[in-house]
UniProtKB/TrEMBL annotation:
Name used for this protein in its record: Protein deacetylase
Residue span(s) of domain Histone deacetylase: 111-353
Tagged with keyword Hydrolase: yes
Lineage: Eukaryota, Sar, Stramenopiles, Ochrophyta, Pelagophyceae
Domain of life: Eukaryota
Transmembrane segments: none
Keywords from the named record: Hydrolase
Presence of keyword Cell inner membrane: no
Pfam families xref list: Hist_deacetyl (PF00850)
Length: 382
């Protein structure tokens, strides 16, 4: 190489090296705190549940939260933050008061319940990590650091809603500190959800011939996956009240043609900016008549916190009081009619962790109010 060419090449290499962007540091992982002493026994099985009936039964598992990238849009840490908030605020004396789904390893009943709602090929592919990239991007968990732990917590979350349904049928009311994975469809996951716990629990109730079931979904986003899976299912009614100008609606047909075409039994689309008064008016217009007409033996209530005015992915304007009034309206309507109800927390994306935990805890406090007002502690066995 001639001297001039060598000099020019050297200058180019130096210039590229000096202008190349510095790689961004890897995001830190937010790890859940360990459960308290006594929550698990020495062999890893669950310790004694110390439920004193002062509050409705509540369901939580330490593995609902897994180590998760701090910059991920989905707040995987919120399940751990929620249980800490429930203890810190005095709602429960300790986490030992929570019921927990059993470990899902080899659980054939759980397998069958999931497969009743989801396509077998999809379940196998997402479980083994062989799901094609385009379908994995729909879920939104491409940053998942540990696939096996993600799938275990996904199955546990579904098992938790099933356990909460059993407790609600016995005691009249149960609060699940997770759940509401309503965007997962039969053949694909979406919107940070892999398996649809609401659809699984509804089908489980119906196929055990326990009577009609109603899904009341008040998350800010339409429960499109629940609508698709449960469409045409005898004895199951779905009602979604959501912002009509939000996911899954309004996406470009070229890039997301699968979004926005699913219909619940009843869909109530609220305009962007609707607040406390509009939400309560819509509840009053639909829910009493729905419960009276269907006479369900179970209600699955998605109390999404993302309908709050301060939420990163919602376009409604509910206040703290509005969320509490919304939730108590649903629970009181069920209690007035003697209908067992399961609450799940649904969406919530506030980046302020403490604020989000308090917001999700609101439905647990509402459940405690209804539990006391209707003296449900005297219902059911031990």
């Amino acid at each position: 190489m001639r001297p001039l060419a060598r000099l020019l090449r050297s200058a180019a290499v130096t210039r590229c090296a000096s202008t190349s962007p510095t790689p961004a540091p890897a995001p830190t992982l937010i790890c859940p705190a360990p459960p308290p002493a006594g929550f698990f026994q020495a062999d890893g099985s669950r310790g004694t549940v110390e439920w004193d009936r002062r509050t409705p039964p509540m369901v939580w598992h330490p593995d609902y939260s897994v180590p998760w990238p701090s910059n991920h849009r989905f707040a995987m840490w919120k399940f751990d933050d929620l249980r800490l908030e429930c203890v810190r605020s005095g709602l429960v004396p300790s986490e030992r008061a929570f019921f927990s789904p059993r470990d899902e390893a080899g659980d054939e009943e759980l397998d069958a319940a999931i497969l009743a709602a989801h396509d077998a090929t999809y379940v196998a592919d997402v479980t083994t990590g062989t799901l094609e990239a385009t379908l994995w991007r729909r879920v939104g968990f491409v940053q998942a650091p540990d696939h096996a732990r993600l799938m275990r917590r996904t199955r546990l979350e579904v098992a938790g809603t099933l356990a909460a349904a059993d407790l609600a049928r016995t005691h009249g009311l149960c609060a699940h500190l997770a759940g509401g994975t309503h965007h997962a469809h039969r053949r694909y996951g979406a919107g940070y959800t892999i398996f649809n716990d609401l659809a699984v629990a509804a089908l489980d109730h119906a196929r055990r011939r326990l009577g009609p079931v109603v899904v009341v979904d008040l998350d800010v986003h339409q429960g499109d996956g629940t609508a698709e899976i449960l469409a045409g299912e005898r004895g199951i009614t779905t009602w979604s009240m959501h912002c009509a100008e939000n996911y899954p609606f309004g996406f470009n047909e070229k890039f997301a043609p699968y979004l926005g075409g699913d219909a619940s039994t009843i869909d109530t689309g609220l305009p962007r900016g609707a607040g406390d008064a509009e939400v309560l008016a819509a509840l009053d217009d639909v829910l009493p008549r729905l419960l009276d007409d269907v006479a369900p033996t179970l209600v699955l209530f998605d109390a999404g916190a993302d309908a709050h005015a301060v939420d990163g992915l919602g376009h409604l304007e509910l206040t703290d009081a509005g969320v509490r009034n919304r939730d108590e309206y649903v629970l009181r309507a069920c209690a007035d009619r003697g209908i067992p109800c399961v609450t799940v927390i649904g969406g919530g994306y506030d980046r302020d962790r403490e604020r989000l935990a308090r917001r999700h805890a609101s439905v647990c406090w509402s459940a405690a109010t209804i539990w006391r007002d209707y003296d449900l502690r005297s219902r059911g066995g031990a």
